[in-house]
Amino acid sequence: MAEAQNLPAGSTTAGSIAVAAESTVATRMSAPPSFDVADFPVPHGREEEWRFTPLERLRGLHDGTAIATGDGVRVDVEAPEGVTVETVGRDDERLGRAGTPVDRVAAQAYSSFEKASVVTVPKETALTEPIRISVHGQGGTAFGHQVVELGAFAEAVVVIDHTGDAVLAANVDYVLGDGAKLTVVSIQDWDEKAVHVAQHNALIGRDASFKSVVVTFGGDVVRLHPRVTYAATGGEAELFGLYFTDKGQHQEHRLLVDHNTPHCKSNVAYKGALQGDQAHAVWIGDVLIQAAAEGTDTYEMNRNLVLTDGARVDSVPNLEIETGEIAGAGHASATGRFDDEQLFYLMARGIPEIEARRLVVRGFFAELVQQIGLPDVEERLITKIEAELEASL
Amino acid sequence: MATLEIRDLHVSVEADNATKEILKGVDLTVKQGETHAIMGPNGSGKSTLAYSLAGHPKYTITGGTVTLDGEDVLEMSVDERARAGLFLAMQYPVEIPGVSVSNFLRTSATAVRGEAPKLRTWVKEVKEAMQRLNMDPAFAERNVNEGFSGGEKKRHEILQLELLRPKIAILDETDSGLDVDALRIVSEGVNRVRESGDVGTLLITHYTRILRYIKPDHVHVFAGGRIVESGGPELADKLEAEGYESYTKGGASA
Description:
The complex is a heterodimer.
Chain A: E1 12-13, H1 24-27, E2 73-78, E3 84-88, H2 104-112, E4 116-121, E5 131-150, E6 155-176, E7 181-188, E8 195-204, E9 209-216, E10 221-230, E11 236-245, E12 250-259, E13 265-274, E14 280-289, E15 297-306, E16 312-321, E17 328-337, H3 340-347, H4 353-370, H5 375-392
Parallel strand pairs in A: 4-5, 5-6, 6-7, 6-8, 7-9, 8-10, 9-11, 10-12, 11-13, 12-14, 13-15, 14-16, 15-17
Antiparallel strand pairs in A: 1-17, 2-5, 3-4
Helix pairs in contact in A: 4-5
Chain B: E1 3-15, E2 18-31, E3 35-39, H1 46-54, E4 59-68, E5 71-72, H2 78-84, E6 86-89, E7 96-100, H3 101-113, H4 119-132, E8 143-144, H5 150-164, E9 168-172, H6 180-195, E10 200-205, E11 218-223, E12 226-231, H7 234-242, H8 245-248
Parallel strand pairs in B: 3-10, 3-11, 6-9, 9-10
Antiparallel strand pairs in B: 1-2, 1-4, 4-5, 7-8, 11-12
Helix pairs in contact in B: 5-6
């Protein structure tokens, strides 16, 4: 595959490093983080954090004209025994602890939601069955807030499934106690008109590990902002993502891993396939290693496979390092076309064109899908990928 | 008996907004069981012949015919040619990330044979073929050509040749970049397929070295986009002694 390595992407640095004088991750945002929507000006589209997003398709989420309707989304939580599921009011003190909204839509969501859902796994409880949260769009507009909290040494898998049609802005908080292990799979399998903008905040306790798998297939506009910070040393974050961007869709994943604490790890791997006219995928991967975060080990990677003409990818890895005392840091971004030479090679072995394309796309995603570790989710993803391909070939 | 017939083949490529004719009237008949060596200097069009026969989209056929048992090869798509019994062992096999060798081989064998090979016999068949080529079983789980050494790539090509059992095999500089041991192993693989008597082989090479292991019935000298001289194995000895100079200077290719 023809790959344009985005240097210094792909390089691994350890030891001598030029130190950034000031974090552009923080300063390039047009306003500091805030829970209040009034603290953010209405974006006009030229701001760094909005420049890739089609504001006119956000259905008013960014400018205050989107109003919650009764028929927004229906949220159902299916949880194994031992898990507490609560619906709470705005004043519940457990809300908003994992992170603060960083843009106007997230702040709008925080300022507008009426009820929040709080799912708690008590300390030292290891679940054997996943917690399943279904968010089903019913055609209206909604603002949401979801909290998933794991006590110390608790272990859980959470699958959040977004389906149907909705205009949804939301914040999701993941709070991991010391030594906790949380895997979250967020699937965006929306109908084609849906608009979904959300900020995911993970706060990782001492020696805790967090694995996020973000899977985006559907929707007109999906813009997600997974963010990770560490509450204490020894935390680990793995952020995996997979998207299949079709004709006319805008799918944007903006990640931030804020290494603010020594001896934490992060690994980011997002892969996307695109096909069709005006298919647009955006991947922003920000990793910040603060001066205090000695012993950090981080790697981030984004790969895109462009299957047809007319699709567009913007992939921007960004690594800022304020200390040289780290274990490792690297990033890579590559966008390749489905290569005519690969196609020729496979066809020269008798494999028909459709099957050859299927083989390559399946192969492209396979490694990532295998890291999910949930057989039913894996199977569903493979089926979905096949269906997406089927539709295009 | 399968026969590949190439008649007055003309092929061009587009380069720098100009059309350049590379093959200027190639005539050749390869029958099942025969081995033809095509030898020539760099740039003479040998690889173009190989890739044109396989149907690479980069090359435009501007004249002539190619038939396999009377069927018009030039009308077939790339995969149809392979299923009809043409095989091209490539000089530079491409990497296919995420596709394992075992998955690739099985998909390919299923396509060429018209049905999925029975799993039990297939596993054994692949394992034995790999053993004969001195390939580590772990090889099957690697991605196609990804991170392969030059020798591994060529062994993998010959592995496919053994498993797909084509009527006509075109080996494009399979010997290039191989050390003596690898050359011997690869040549033994080719010879096993040849000994079956079912395959016609078109061995394209720059060097005579491989002809010590794979004995051709016919040797053709390729220069200036066509065959300029044909003979028996003795022609290779002459090339070994004299090189291509007499063919590239004026006369022969004009």
